[in-house]
Write a structure and sequence with these properties.
Layout lengths: L1 H20 L4 E4 L3 E7 L5 E2 L2 E11 L6 E8 L5 E3 L4 E4 L8 E10 L6 E10 L2 E10 L3 E2 L27 E4 L5 E3 L3 E10 L5 E8 L6 E2 L7 E6 L4 E10 L6 E12 L5 E13 L7 E9 L8 E10 L5 E9 L4 E3 L6 E6 L4 E10 L6 E10 L6 E9 L10 E7 L5 E2 L3 E10 L5 E9 L4 E3 L4 E7 L4 E10 L6 E13 L2 E14 L13 E9 L3 E2 L3 E10 L6 E9 L12 E3 L5 E7 L4 E10 L7 E14 L2 E16 L4 E3 L8 E2 L3 E10 L5 E9 L10 E6 L4 E9 L4 E12 L5 E13 L31 H36 L1
Parallel strand pairs: 3-11, 13-20, 30-37, 39-46, 48-54
Antiparallel strand pairs: 1-2, 2-4, 4-8, 5-7, 5-9, 6-8, 9-10, 12-14, 14-18, 15-17, 15-19, 16-18, 19-20, 21-22, 22-26, 23-25, 23-27, 24-26, 27-28, 29-31, 31-35, 32-34, 32-36, 33-35, 36-37, 38-40, 40-44, 41-43, 41-45, 42-44, 45-46, 47-49, 49-52, 50-51, 50-53, 53-54
Length: 816
């Protein structure tokens, strides 16, 4: 009987035990807190998978609330919490209240199912805790593990735990890009695409040399953990060296991390970043150079001022500026060097020197050299031009070339082309027997006559001429010069001038690539004025054309060079005004043009002719992914004439002058220019007196000649009479000039002649004037007065004629 009762009692215990532990819902009761837990909603948990463990904490204390709740998971090889072994529930529970929280767990596949849960909380200012062990039976252990592995989950790795390796991938929304001298931001997203959590993730970049400036203690980033299927964002920031090369750089990333068991892993990934560099190295140039006064006289003190510009974007450091005044000037204080610690990019410093011109210095334009250096460059030299007033010499010009037209694009080998230009007579007399001959060398053959004859060309008249050519088959791809020789006769003098033109020829072998090397030519050019005057400024307009149909050019520098110099001073014929003779074009697309304008000064002693200007092109272009450079030249001509210069003196007038009597005025005039004047006419213009007999036609007026003008006028009204002496003439270019000299004459009434004998002639003094009869006596008094006036007029006329004859003789002596 007792045996049966004992068996029944044991069966009841087994049933109760099976009922309690057959469910994954576990209840733990304490004095103040109850704990219940459900694993994966009672569904099956497979090995090496994550699941949610739902824990409910209930406050059974009727006397007060509990807070600062912490859930502490015991260490086991089967269940590892993703959020760590100690996790917090941010809630305060009043009496009778409960809270349910899900905790992500990882099941390793071990057979152990027990897990201890400890709840620590704060009640009445004191911390208390309750600990319960639960069994998670709805698991499917990994049968291939070969037995239990009950080692600690946070061990240093070893055994089968190293199989739980997270897989990390690096991504970014776009390639990071930064500018040299700035800061680059590299945002990265690290994704864990495995089923296992990654912990203590450290990302360390390997930075290339001379690209970044490291101003940080460390360059790596650390992420505490990245759960399976999750991602984390990190961001690197680095300062880029201002001189870093523009390029796309590969940045290796070393990634070190651990799994939940503490096993260490190392991966290497690569990312790419783009660095752009728009910085230009420091480049010093001199601009806006001027003297005060503008024109210097021998022995005069003057100030030379210019702006020292840094045309780069990077600063120029330790700048030294020195002045070499040459043999014509000297520095007053003997201090020629200036120092600047730095000049920022695209900024300038004003530099002033006080100089003095040497005595008896001849006229002309003289060169003063500015010597510069800085940390990036040394031995930089820049010429400045100082104008000294001086005498002019005889020059003249008759024929100039205008409107030069050449092909705008490259001409293929064995293809005909045409060049044309206008021949204009800018002189004052007709040019005779004009012959134009074109010469192009043995590679460029004429298709038309290469000699053209023009019988005559009147002043101001122009004639268009054109010539056809064809290149040989074996030409090279380059610019070929074509020279036009213009010969003509002016009086007994034979004049010869030259005009150069450039034509770009594309060789036969380069037809397939069609301008593999892009060529640059001057497609159009003009000057304002069209005919340049010596000693004056002019504006040069130029159009540069990229003849290539497929390639662009970059970083193009254009330098204008004139090989001919002044015979007197040795200086260049043309000098830029407040600028340099160099242009810069950032980029020129295929077939694209770029217009440039330059103000230049022509030295006063420049000979009258067409000067050849060479444009030197230096640029870069891309071919097969490589950057190449090229240098080529083009030429064009600038015609120069000497300006007319007639000097006149003030008008000499008598003071006072009498009404009704002839008044003589005079003025002297001189040809101070270097060209002969034509159609010179001198006359008087006035609204106060008659000027019809005042014209004096001189005609041609030679260089260095002098003459005087004298005219007689008769005043008709008292007071102030105004007039002007007008000089009109034409210069060598046929341009008419007018010079006026005003004068004023004060006219008064002539005093009446008083008869000393109030009555009749002295012989009739005894005769009664009232007596009638007989004829009046002869008027001897009036005849005597008239005769005296006539004698005075004759004397004045003789003096004037003698004076004029004497001046004519002096002029003949000067001509001899």
């Amino acid at each position: 009987m007792h045996s049966r009762q004992l068996k029944a009692f044991l069966m009841v215990l087994v049933m109760i035990f099976s009922f309690v532990f057959s469910s994954n819902t576990v209840l733990a009761e304490g004095e103040k807190v109850d704990i219940s837990a459900t694993a994966n909603n009672d569904e099956l948990i497979r090995a090496k998978e994550y699941f949610d463990l739902s824990i409910t904490v209930t406050n059974n204390n009727n006397e007060g609330s509990i807070s600062n709740i912490e859930v502490i998971f015991g260490k086991t090889s089967s269940f590892i919490p993703s959020g760590g072994h100690v996790q917090t529930i941010e809630v305060t529970l009043a009496p009778g209240e409960s809270v349910t929280e899900d905790f992500e767990m990882f099941y390793s596949g071990e057979k152990e199912t027990a897990l201890m849960i400890t709840v620590r909380y704060k009640y009445d200012g004191q911390y208390q805790k309750v600990a319960k062990t639960i069994n998670i039976d709805n698991v499917a252990p990994d049968t291939s593990s070969g037995g239990d592995n009950t080692g600690g989950g946070d061990g240093g790795g070893g055994g089968l735990t190293s199989e739980f390796k997270p897989v990390l991938e690096i991504t970014s929304a776009a390639m990071p890009e930064g500018k040299a001298g700035g800061t680059i931001t590299i945002p990265l997203t690290i994704s864990n695409i495995a089923k296992y959590e990654a912990r203590e993730v450290r990302i360390t970049p390997t930075l290339p040399e001379n690209v970044f400036i490291i101003d940080q203690l460390t360059v790596y980033k650390v992420v505490d953990k990245i759960p399976a299927g999750k991602s984390a964002d990190v961001e690197f920031k680095f300062k880029i060296n201002e001189k870093a090369d523009e390029n796309i750089y590969k940045i290796p990333l070393q990634i070190k991390y651990k799994n939940i068991y503490g096993n260490d892993f190392t991966d290497t990934k690569e990312i790419y970043i783009k660095i752009t560099n728009n910085n230009l190295p420091a480049r010093l140039v001199v601009r806006d150079a001027k003297t005060n006064p503008e024109v210097i006289k021998p022995g005069e003190t003057f100030a030379l001022t210019f702006d020292l510009w840094n045309m780069g974007t990077l600063e120029a450091k330790n700048v030294t500026v020195d002045l070499n005044p040459g043999n014509e000037f000297f520095v007053l204080n003997n201090v020629t060097k200036n120092y600047f610690f730095e000049i920022n990019g695209l900024n300038n410093k004003e530099v002033t020197y006080n100089l003095k011109a040497k005595d008896k210095l001849e006229s002309g334009t003289y060169v003063v050299k500015v010597l510069m250096s800085h940390d990036g460059e040394t031995n930089l030299e820049y010429p400045l031009y100082v104008k000294v007033e001086g005498d002019e010499k005889e020059e003249n010009v008759d024929i100039v070339t205008e409107n030069v037209q050449t092909p705008n694009q490259a001409v293929l080998a064995e293809q005909p082309f045409t060049v044309s230009f206008d021949i204009k007579n800018t002189g004052t007399t007709e040019a005779e027997e004009i012959k134009v001959t074109v010469e192009a060398g043995d590679k460029i053959l004429p298709q038309s006559l290469n000699v053209l004859t023009i019988n005559g060309l009147k002043p101001g008249e122009s004639v268009p001429v054109s010539f056809s050519f064809i290149s040989t088959k074996d030409v090279e791809s380059k610019v070929y010069p074509i020279k036009a020789v213009i010969e003509y006769k002016k009086g007994e003098e034979q004049v010869k001038k030259e005009q150069y033109m450039g034509v770009l020829i594309e060789a036969e072998k380069d037809k397939q690539t069609l301008n593999t090397v892009p060529k640059i030519i001057i497609s159009e050019y003009s000057s304002d004025p069209a005919v340049v005057k010596a000693g004056e400024n002019f504006t040069l307009y130029m159009t540069f054309l990229n003849t290539s149909k497929v390639k662009a050019v970059e970083n193009m520098k254009i330098t204008l060079v004139v090989n001919e110099t002044s015979e007197e001073t040795g200086g260049s014929v043309f000098t830029p005004v407040q600028s340099s003779n160099t242009f810069y074009i950032d980029r020129l697309e295929p077939g694209e043009t770029s217009q440039k304008t330059l103000v230049m000064y022509t030295i006063p002693d420049a000979k009258a002719k067409t000067y050849v200007v060479t444009a030197v092109f230096e640029y870069e272009y891309e071919e097969n992914g490589e950057l190449k450079t090229n240098k080529m030249e083009d030429v064009f001509g600038i015609p120069v004439i000497q300006p007319a210069k007639l000097e006149v003196t003030d008008v000499i007038v008598p003071d006072p002058a009498y009404i009704g009597e002839p008044v003589y005025i005079s003025s002297e005039f001189y040809n101070m220019g270097r060209v002969k004047l034509s159609k010179l006419m001198v006359r008087i213009e006035s609204e106060d007196f008659d000027t019809r007999e005042s014209n004096y036609f001189v005609g041609n007026f030679d260089i260095g000649a002098s003459d005087y003008y004298e005219a007689s006028i008769t005043l008709t009204k008292p007071g102030e009479n105004r007039g002007k002496v007008v000089y009109t003439f034409e210069d060598a270019a046929g341009e008419e000039h007018r010079i006026e000299k005003e004068f004023t004459i004060n006219a008064i009434e002539a005093e009446p002649v008083i008869n000393p004998f109030p009555g009749d002639f002295p012989g009739d003094m005894g005769k009664d004037p009232n007596m009638s009869g007989g004829k009046n006596s002869f008027p001897f008094v009036w005849v005597a007065v008239g005769g005296g006036v006539l004698v005075i007029g004759v004397i004045v006329l003789v003096i004037v004629l003698r004076k004029r004859k004497k001046r004519k003789e002096l002029m003949l002596d000067e001509d001899i």
